[in-house]
Design goal:
Layout: E1 4-7, E2 10-12, E3 18-24, E4 33-39, E5 46-52, E6 56-59, E7 67-72, E8 77-82, E9 91-100, E10 107-111, E11 115-119
């Protein structure tokens, strides 16, 4: 099992910046995929960004050019750098990891508890 702990959320003005962190309780396999989802009231869960060693990074159209996902394997931590924040970015942001466990077990999925990001004047 892996525990994911998000941090860095808070209140920020439109146009501001914020960086989220996601720390894993143990080192994940290097081939593991990691990403950030967000959930806003009245809206469906949205995959914001993801990163894998094989395919690199990918972003939702709504955040392209503004958000950057990165991974520090030494610290077992994933980051989401957010710039030019907009009110529509307001949501609870969740860190997610998918770790392969072999042919019989498959891929295990881990979710963090979430961190609130509020963009408002």
């Amino acid at each position: 099992q892996v525990q994911l702990a998000e941090s860095g959320g808070g209140l920020v003005q439109p146009g501001g910046s914020l960086t989220l962190s996601c720390a894993a309780s143990r080192t994940l396999l290097k081939i593991s995929a990691m990403g950030w989802y967000r959930l806003a009231p009245g809206k469906q869960r949205e995959l914001v960004a993801q990163i894998t060693p094989e395919f690199g990074t990918d972003y939702a159209d709504s955040v392209k050019g503004r958000f950057t996902i990165s991974r520090d394997n030494t610290k077992d931590t994933v980051y989401l750098q957010m710039t030019d924040l907009r009110p529509e970015d307001t949501a609870v942001y969740y860190c997610v990891a998918e770790e392969p466990q072999g042919l019989q077990i498959g891929v295990l999925e881990y979710w963090g508890q979430g961190t609130q990001v509020t963009v408002s004047s």
